[in-house]
Fold each of these.
Amino acid sequence: MTTNKTRSIEERLFALALDTDPRFLERVVARWATVQSPVGDVYVAWTKTGICAVASRRAIEDSSSFVDVTSARLSRPLLKGEPSAAIVDAMATGRSRQLRFDLAGLTPFETDVLETTRRIPRGEVRPYAWVAAEIGRPRAVRAVGSALGRNPVPLLIPCHRVTRSDGSIGNYGSGGPEMKEELLRAEEVNLDEVLELARAGVHFVGATTTRVVCFPSCTAIRRAAPARRQGFRSLDEAEAVGFRPCERCRPGIAASA
Amino acid sequence: MSARRGAQRGRADGVLSDVPAVDLGEDQDEAIRRGLNKDLDGGFTHLVEVHKKTLATVAGRVAERPQDADDLAAEAFLRAWRALRSYDADRIAALSFRPWLVTIVLNVARNARRDASRRPRVSPLAPANEPTSSARGVDALAVARSERDELVWRLGALAERERIAVVLRHVADLSIPEVAEALGCPEGTARSHVARGLAKLRAAYESDVQTPSRRRATKEGTT
């Protein structure tokens, strides 16, 4: 009865039992941990697919509230875990392009807004209207603001880098405008300069050497010597005198909206 | 939310809360139940560890594609967790976890099959609605590379309720009362589904496989 040939049908059926992959539990549960950021401790949660929740400890003081709210939103158990080196590093540096996210449950519009926002480099800001234009919904500026306000993964998808066209920094869902400003200053955005220019009606800055025009926070224009910079109220004004839009910060798309 | 849950469970589990969760030889359901009452997510993790193999087996042997077994089992556990979240201690006390979970995974697998049939694809084993006639299987058997594949194919050729009953009883190793509970039928019905399925498997082997050793093997298997 023990050799292959003579095994009973029951034995052979029993041999059809399957085993699960060793990390099976991770298909079922999400994990969370506390991680350091430039604005203090933050809670981060992730699934097998990617990061699904971030919240500043300043916004939610008690970790059990974060766990309850997040577990309810994800509709799955949320257990304590070990954050990957990639998460820890991205949280510390603000550079998160390599990370994977799990944005299940968001609308296609919200997903588009976040995907575009993800591409804004550290140390720079873009207007809400720019995000709206980039996703092909130039009139949906307010909806972009609401979608960013519901960003489930702030800091890592840097909604703090989207500000108002008048140079003021606008609202911030996770921790208020003060935290948004703190984050931007930690990334060395030229906030004061941007605001000062906006007050003078200047929303674009060109380099007279290259004749390229940028958003005032673009790294490209900030490298130009101050004497070689020229401010513009609008992109049309810049293009009228022979400037072309920067391919890096893409100011053209918002202005043409 | 879980604070409220915790408070409820805390009252309900009273003196048991200090008993260690796992102990060899202890009734597993009782240990899981105590875990769930104390801390839903902790108890749930235990539930997954104890029953994941059963659910993957049921999902993999009932669904058309065994490679989906882990995903279907994971989905079933999530549904179980969502249900447990709203159950009070009395309701949890009344649960037999294994048949309960198996019922859930059977539903998940059935839904997955229905969804898949709306998006037809070529399945190498396409067994679900095959007739039980053994002659029908000659071509497919020619490509079945091993005994194991052959048995999987033959299981797939059974009528659905017999196939599920045989999988639950003999592949996933549930008892007849558990099979009956999982299928929501009387024990006698469960027993006869299993017996009929097994008899058909044996008959198929006897008419197809001419080697005396195998024929003897299937006869010996009769109990």
Amino acid sequence: MEGATNYKTKQEFERLFHEYADVVYRLALYKTSDEDVARDITQETFLRLWKSMVSEGAVKRPKQYMYQIARNLIVDHYKRQQTSSLEVLEEGGFEPRANTPSADTLADAALLQSAIEELEPEFRDVVYLRLVEEMKVKDIAEMLDISPNLVSVRINRGKKQLEEKYI
Amino acid sequence: MKITKKQFEKAQETFLEKSLSTGEKASMLSTIYSEVGAPVTSPLSGWSILFSRRVAMAFLVVVFVFSGGAYASAYSLPGDLLYPIKVGVLEPIALAARITDEAKEQYRTKLIERRAQELEILYERGALTEEKKAISERATEKYLSGAVDIEIDIAETSKVIINPVEQGVKEVVPGINSEVSTTTNGTSTPILTPEVIPTFPNSTLEEVIIESSVEPSLENQPAENGIVVPLIPETPDL
């Protein structure tokens, strides 16, 4: 019986991986503009999810869990980057990144970031998930742990704010 | 930075296309499972598997295995003539021959790792092309989805092996049903009725199949210049 549960856990994990690996990767890429970092964050996110699923059998809200892990890892990355930038400056040197992302990737991510990050904080996540990831309201609600109604309201207001900022 | 709506929509469209490659996903899963083992067990799936269509195909492949072709194909790499046989027939058969779901999952994970290893070998030889990468990725796709069991890729392999083997088997085993089953891709394969399927011990079938799909290694791969280095079989990983 336990074996069958484990088997189902793995199937569920792989389903989530196939459905959300790219979503997490793009979120990390959007936030960091670094392909290597985005890959690392994606792998770490799913590693933590897998560990939780193995130890607890099932995660109650896996989408929200994944999103939170990814967000935390992105924040950690920025914290580490700030520290290392300071160290680099103190040493007076600069070492370029091993794998520089393509100009297109940077340009797209930067462009989207420049537009979305100008919105009020409460609209940023919903606008990103809706307009960039084209996710359904229900999924966004589950991911952000807010009601679908609130998601819809924020999407509409966020869109309006965004349109006001266009040239 | 002020942007136009058009610029935003274009960036949104192209950004959504960015995704992890199949190889990257396979490598991630492999790393995740190597850090925290995959606990997969399930009750025996039953002896009825012996009478499934896959076993009928396995019989055809066993003939190929004994001919030595399978041994050679086990060492093939993406782009090689025998590679479709390895990934389209031998590996799915070896997978089907594993009785428990646990064994199946372990083998599937192993195959994903093997795809990454093959790319590594090609890369080290400087022979990794986009085409070979695409072939490998297509092969990996089959094993990435845990929910879907693996189908034998008859389309890719029938021209090379199945049809000649089928002919040979018909001569050896006259009781083969003349019915054919049509697969989703339109190719046809003969069906063996249970009463005419020759029975052979499980271990024999598994040994043959497992041996035919041993891990490729840098030492015993045929060299790129065409000189065939003698193959030193590794101990089969049971």
